[in-house]
Amino acid sequence: MTTPSTLRVRGLTITDDRGNHPLHLFDFDAAAGEIVALVGPSGSGKTTAVSALLGVLPRGVAVTAGSVVWSGPGEHGTRSWRGTTVGYAAQDPASALHPGYTACRSVAEAARMRGSARHVAAARSVLSELGLTDEQIGSPPHRLSGGQAQRVAVARALVASPPLVILDEPTSGLDDVTLQPVLAAITARRRANGVTIVATHDPRLIAVCDRVLRTAPAVHHDTMSVFDRVVRSGTTALELTDFGIRTEQGRVLLDGSTLDVRTGEFVVLRGHSGCGKTTLLRAVCGLHPFDGTVKLDGHAVAARVGERTPESRAAIALVGQNPRDALNPAHNIERILRRQMRQLHPRADRRAEAERLLDRVALPRGVLRRRPHELSGGQRQRVAIARALAGRPRLLIADEMTASLDHNTAMHITDLLDELRHADTETGSGLSILATTHDEHLTARADRVVEIHKASIIETPLHTRSAHP
Predict the structure, then answer these.
(1) CA–CA separation, 123 vs 129, rounded Å?
(2) Are 453 and 445 in contact (CB under 8 A)?
């Protein structure tokens, strides 16, 4: 009879090359059939703990005390162990999936490595259970929405019931409808008698876990400052008229729709996974073809970002779902922020402005010296927000910008955005925001909620949950 697997962590301390401890004297046990949640503020060490459990800490970070003991198949920390014994879903699912593989092939490959004789059938089965359609199962990552890619990553982790499953923010981009089959698949791990670890901020996922472990919070500077801003004129920031978008395969996502975002207004865009929310945001930014007209402050802008004037490009800032892809891995955070403020500040003032930006998004100033891969997912998200604000945009386009943030940090960011959008709206200087989100707390701050439904944009009752949130 096979002995049930267990994971045991004792006194685990992680130290970086600056002498900081992202994780200090961490202890926990996880038994077969148990689902354990790692919970804590952004930057408190959850993703570092996950990396240590996998035996793949990044360069410049090392285990300096304690141990991770795996009692189960394979040798902990080896590449073969990770391939055959561990199911892992990373925080940035689209980045982790092979760009040339369909969803089915990505999941089938994981099943094959775990010894499944019918790996393709197993892949199709788990993808269907997680609510993906036949078309989505046969699509590569770039044709999937963020929520669909996230479910593919979860399917890859769960397929063929590996003895150990580690999921890093597996539900952050899922609405309540698409969440349910994912929760069902995770809780089914109890019957499979495997060890399951989830790092999460999502209270909906925490509620189904057997135990909750809290990582120690990071210390942040409390200094706040007020952005200098240029007074702008006009009462309507964004107007979409007769607006239409399609997928690369020609499927109509929107047809002849209209939407406006007024100066200082916060509009939330809702809709079921795959309906076109992210594509709409990318089209507004000039990153996806569209039909119809996009106007900024009453002036039409070119469809492609490369054909837009420098002023119209600077007026719109995008915070996407995957900051790991958006932030240059070769640059440190100071250089990333300074590049956005070249037209606004003399060279001598840029360091101070970068520090003020980090203060505003509740990050320590020491982050300026780090590169994106040295930060947690929530810290990268806040850097992406700071970079977007560095150029003093007229319009902020945000795609699930609080999904990787804990509740307190998300509320801090929302308070900051409220301050910026209410900054003297009578003179037309307030920041306007168009955002997609599944965060009900963020939605509650919105002035209006609109929904993509049957290829149209419709107004929905404010602060009322949609049938397809």
Answers:
(1) 10
(2) no
- For each of the domains in the chain, give its residue range(s) and CATH number, in order of start: 6-214 (3.40.50.300), 236-460 (3.40.50.300)
Mean pLDDT of the chain: 87
Strands 61-71 and 35-39: unpaired
Q: What is the pLDDT of residues 75-129, one digit of tens each?
A: 999 999 999 999 999 988 777 899 999 999 999 999 999 999 999 999 999 999 9
Give the C-alpha separation, 60 to 75, whole Å. Answer: 24
Q: How far apart are CA 224 and CA 61, in angstroms?
A: 30
pLDDT number for residue 461: 61
Query: Do 401 and 413 contact (CB within 8 A), yes or no?
Result: yes
The gap from C-alpha 440 to its chain's centroid, in whole angstroms, comes to 16
Distance CA 72, CA 53 (A): 14
CA 459 from centroid of its chain's CA atoms: 26
Cβ neighbors of 162 (< 8 A, separation 6 or more) are: 84, 85, 86, 87, 114, 194
Please state the rounded mean pLDDT for residues 414-430: 71
Average pLDDT over residues 7-25: 89
**What percent of the chain stands above pLDDT 90?**
61
Cα within 13 Å of Cα(13), Cβ side:
10
Q: Which residue has the tokens 């089959």?
A: 181
Name residue 141's amino acid.
Answer: P
The residue type of 251 is R
Predicted pLDDT of residue 467: 37
SS (H, E, C) the chain: CCCCCEEEEEEEEEEECCCCCCEEEEEEEEECCCEEEEECCCCCCHHHHHHHHHCCCCCCEEEEEEEEEEECCCCCCCHHHHHHCEEEECCCHHHHCCCCCCHHHHHHHHHHHCCCCCHHHHHHHHHHHCCCCHHHHCCCHHHCCHHHHHHHHHHHHHCCCCCEEEEECCCCCCCHHHHHHHHHHHHCHHHHCCEEEEECCCHHHHCCCCEEEECCCCCCCCCCCCCCCCCCCCCEEEEEEEEEEECCCCCEEEEEEEEEEECCCEEEEECCCCCCHHHHHHHHCCCCCCEEEEEECCEECCCCHHHCCHHHHHHEEEECCCHHHHCCCCCCHHHHHHHHCCCCCCHHHHHHHHHHHHHHCCCCHHHHHCCHHHCCHHHHHHHHHHHHHHCCCCEEEEECCCCCCCHHHHHHHHHHHHHHHCCCHHHCCCCEEEEECCCHHHHCCCCEEEEEECCEEEEECCCCCCCCC
